[in-house]
Design goal:
Rossmann fold, 2 domains, seven-stranded parallel beta sheet, 12 helices, 13 strands
Length: 335
């Protein structure tokens, strides 16, 4: 069986570990990783796809449009080593070619959930401010007093979006005995109950949560779902976290709440990215700003993406099964 590796060289070196490629070579033939281009192009894809039954794509791989798919008559599986496939697959590929698609969104979700937990614990403990104060020569912490910090145990956490990430956040928070509130209008009460969480409306979640963390997909329905009408409902002292997409938040409205000093925010995503040099997120003391790093952007996290794509190819070729399959009807509610 032939597999086309359609990932640029730098990306391939970050996601593929040598033992994993050796395993792939034990049951398929594939193009050399050492000979991959620095920038993946449609021309390279067209040259590699003839005769290929499966392919691996990732960030930086061009769309499998009609022109490219015309060169891939045998292609049956696109194993996307990254997350969203909306930009990657055309309607024709879904409907006429019946090509199956798998993504690593579920794998990435674990990493995003861990980053979310890290934001929560370090923010509640005021570790950012205490470290800065201590380095500046203080010991008690100054304004960031160790006696004003909090532990996560028993707090109310509001989760916006029961996505793959939202579900991982629920799992990771269970040991802390938090009260978990979830807003997702597409989820039934039975599913909330089975997960041991309380479904609620958005305004109630914002008003009653000590921590609000955003995990909804970026769709037409979720654009600026957090805005000037509902962000004022956030409690004084609330922690607001966005590791989803910047488009979900009306940034001027969030900045207005932050400028009062009454809330704290951890922002990993903005709209647009990167934010302007003079953007308030860069200067406000009550904001931790990171460069869209939640999700798979670690050494071992990247290797897990490549390994999972190879596992999906193996399972597809030997058993016809996929653990992380994406179907066309799922796209409307996905990132």
């Amino acid at each position: 069986m032939k597999v086309a590796i359609l990932v640029n060289k730098g990306m391939a070196n970050s996601i593929f570990d040598k033992p994993d490629l050796e395993f792939l070579a034990s049951f398929t033939d594939f193009n050399s990783v050492d000979e991959l281009p620095n920038v993946m192009t449609a021309e390279f894809m067209k040259a590699q796809l003839p005769g290929s039954v499966c392919t691996v794509s990732c960030w930086g791989t061009p769309c499998f449009d009609d022109d490219i798919m015309a060169c891939a008559p045998d292609l049956r599986l696109i194993a996307h080593a990254a997350g969203s496939v909306k930009h990657l697959i055309t309607e024709k590929t879904w409907r006429e070619r019946k090509c199956r698609v798998t993504s690593n969104a579920g794998v990435i979700a674990e990493s995003v959930a861990q980053t979310t937990l890290a934001f929560i614990l370090t923010s509640l403990g005021q570790l950012w401010a205490l470290s800065n104060a201590t380095k500046a020569g203080k010991w008690s912490g100054g304004e960031a007093s160790k006696f004003t910090t909090k532990t996560l145990n028993g707090l109310t956490v509001g989760i916006i979006g029961l996505s793959l990430v939202g579900r991982e956040v629920i799992k990771i928070l269970k040991p802390f005995n938090c009260k978990l509130l979830v807003y997702d209008p597409y989820v039934s009460p039975f599913e909330f109950e089975s997960l041991g969480v309380c479904g609620t409306d958005l305004n109630t979640l914002l008003a009653t949560s000590n921590i609000v963390t955003v995990h909804a997909p970026s769709t037409n329905d979720t654009y600026h779902m957090l805005n000037s009408a509902n962000l004022p409902f956030l409690q004084n002292g609330a922690l607001f976290i966005n590791t989803a997409r910047g488009t979900l938040v009306e940034e001027p409205a969030l900045i207005k709440e932050l400028e009062t000093g009454r809330i704290f925010a951890c922002i990993d995503v903005t709209d647009p990215e990167p934010p302007a040099i003079d953007h308030p997120f860069r200067t406000l003391d009550n904001v931790i700003l990171t460069p869209h790093i939640a999700g798979g952007h670690t050494i071992n996290g990247r290797h897990k993406l490549g390994r999972n794509s190879i596992k999906e190819i193996y399972n597809y070729l030997t058993k016809g099964t996929l653990a992380y399959e994406v179907r066309e009807e799922m796209l409307e509610r996905m990132a």
